[in-house]
Amino acid sequence: MSIDPRAQQRATRAAFFIPGFVIATWAPIVPFAKLRAGLDDAQLGLVLLCLGLGSLVAMPLAGALAARQGCRRVMLASTALMLVLLPMLALAADAWLLAGVLLLLGAAMGAMDCTMNIQAVVVEREAARPMMSGFHAFYSVGSLAGAVLVTALLGAGVPVLAATLAVSALVLLLGGASARAWRGDRAPGGAPVFALPRGVVLGIGLVCFVSFLAEGAMLDWSAVFLHEARQVELERAGWGFVAFNLAMTGTRLVGDRVVAAAGRVRTVLAGGLVAAAGLALAVLSPGLVSALAGFVLLGVGCANIVPVMFTLAGEQTRMPEHLAIPAVTTMGYAGVLAGPALIGFVAQGASLAVALLLVAAVLAMAAVAGSRIGRRTR
Hints:
This protein is mainly α and 378 residues long. The chain has helices at 5-37, 41-69, 71-91, 95-127, 132-155, 160-178, 200-229, 239-253, 255-262, 264-284, 288-302, 305-315, 321-349, 352-376.
């Protein structure tokens, strides 16, 4: 069945929007889940680790399934699982149940993330023009929309369960409208479908891991930080993630033009340093306004690092593209899902501020490493 290229492009944007929309729903309700289950920082970090474990297991399996069954079937199954799990986040009052829900949600998110990037690479190549920053922008658009919607609903007194059901309904409508244009082609018989990253691909994956770790820190810990360190009400603590996501979304929407004007090396180096400085400002400044300004700088700085890295992964010659992209995707999204759990352990042993400052330091190092990779692959 022939599908209009523009329809495929719109459907790919929707595929990126959906997981961003779903995972952002989790950010404003983390403090509610923490209180409901009676968790301290270390216990919350351990529970959050289940998101990463589910993702790490699902990503290579999803890549293999997408190669054999096509992206469409894997993305449909992943979306359906997300729809079922979202309301359960609002109902889980036991640490073990919450961990199980997050494990399955991580698996659904990981499968969707891997297959949507495989589709994006193919659609971008067929369009013969840069589109990766735009696709990733719609993940940010989804995250922004989800965070704003749920935070606003909670602030208006809507119960957490009703807010998650509203998100599920919207995802059902969007997925149903887009699924026909998701790609169903498969890899040739006998072709390898997954490989461990090596050479420059490993370096690209590590830079993506750090960038996504910072995004995961905002997703899982920004509301907790604002509530506990800045005494912001629980119902309004999600606005920190909104500020971060708004900045990232706006920057990614113009990302292709930024990269064309400044070049890949400068984009990655400047972006990483700005992100590190922004996170440090958010942690060290005493006021709420300056903390939000720091989250904005973090979003601006991180915005185009990952799209540039995915483009480099497609251009490098150390590994075939169809193996490099899933490998980089797995490493990158492991950061957003598994990294925040490590932050929880550091926060329990020292403080949440110390943990976030360590993330800022690693961001600065990733900026230098990413710029060097960009020079080698030009």
